Amino acid sequence: MKTSFMSVATGALIAIMIHMNGTLGNYTNVYFSCFIVHLLATLGGGILILFMKAGGDRRIQYPFYYYLGGILGAIIIILNNFSFKGLGVSITAALVFFGQIMMSILVDSFGLLQMEKIPFNKRKLPGIFLVAAGVLVIMWT
C-alpha cells in the first residue's frame, strides 16, 4: 500500500513539474528551462548522496544504457515544455500517462531492457481502451 501511495504521489508531482517546467520554459526558453531543472536535480541528488550515504556498489559493472536516464529526462522535459505551451497541464499529463502505459506494456510483453517477459494478455485491452477513452475525454472537454 505504501508503494501504491508513492506512485500516486509521483503522478501528482509530475503534473506539478509539467506546470513549473513549462512556465519556466515560457519565461526563458525550453532548453534553458531543461538546463536549470537538471542543474538543480544534480545539486539535489548530490546533497542526498552526501547525507544519505547512498551511492551504489561501485564494484559492479553496469550496462552503459543504465546511465542514459538523464538524457531521457532531458528529452522528456523539453518535449513536455513544448507540449505544455499548446496543451496545458491536464492534456499534457494525460498524454504522457498514456505513453507511459503503452511503453510499459511493450517493455513487459517483449522483455525489453532486460526485464522479465510478461506476455501480453487480451484482458489488458479493456484497460488500454479505458485509458485512451479517458485521455480523449480530457482532450475534448
TrEMBL record:
GO cellular component: plasma membrane
Transmembrane keyword on record: yes
Membrane-spanning residues: 30-52, 64-84, 90-113, 125-140
Record keywords: Membrane, Transmembrane, Transmembrane helix
Highest taxon of source: Bacteria
Keyword match Amino-acid biosynthesis: no
Pfam families assigned to the protein according to its UniProt record, in alphabetical order: DMT_YdcZ
Protein name per its UniProtKB record: Transporter family-2 protein
Source organism (scientific name): Natronincola ferrireducens
